[in-house]
């Protein structure tokens, strides 16, 4: 059975959560975004693949490199995975506003799974645009 409309809404809200956590400076909130064994692939930014919730909290706390003041997500596309009602893929675009007023964009390629705590990202790849 494909994921439901309610699942899609929950996934859209999950994808939106990243910007709020980053902009509010709440790295501990990553547990509401990623699975415990989640992988965050920031290879395009020279940081490799960061895996596991503790390492992800550390990454978000350290905020290496030039960090945006504002993270915004748009163009969210949720795709069911055949044979599973507990996982999906998600593509979205991130827009950022830098401290100097310049703007940038990235692509997010996510694998999401249903957990006992709701939907979470199990793998995110950040693609430099």
At a glance:
This protein has 129 residues and is α+β, with helices and mostly antiparallel strands. It has 2 helices and 6 strands; from the N terminus they run H-E-E-H-E-E-E-E.
Q: Keywords for this structure?
A:
129 residues; alpha+beta; Nuclear Transport Factor 2, Chain: A; 6-stranded mixed sheet; 2 helices; 23% helix; globular; NTF2-like_dom_sf
Question: What does this molecule look like?
Answer:
- It comes from Solicola gregarius.
- Residues 5-125 form the SnoaL-like domain.
- This is Nuclear transport factor 2 family protein.
- Pfam families: SnoaL_4 (PF13577).
- By secondary structure, this protein is of the alpha+beta class.
- The chain has a single domain (5-128), classed as Nuclear Transport Factor 2, Chain: A (Roll).
- Helix content is 23%, strand content 44%.
- The chain contains 2 helices and 6 strands; from the N terminus they run H-E-E-H-E-E-E-E.
- A 6-stranded mixed beta sheet has the order 2-1-6-5-4-3, with helices on one face.
- Strand 5 and strand 6 form a beta hairpin.
- The longest helix is centred in the N-terminal third of the chain and has 20 residues, at 5-24.
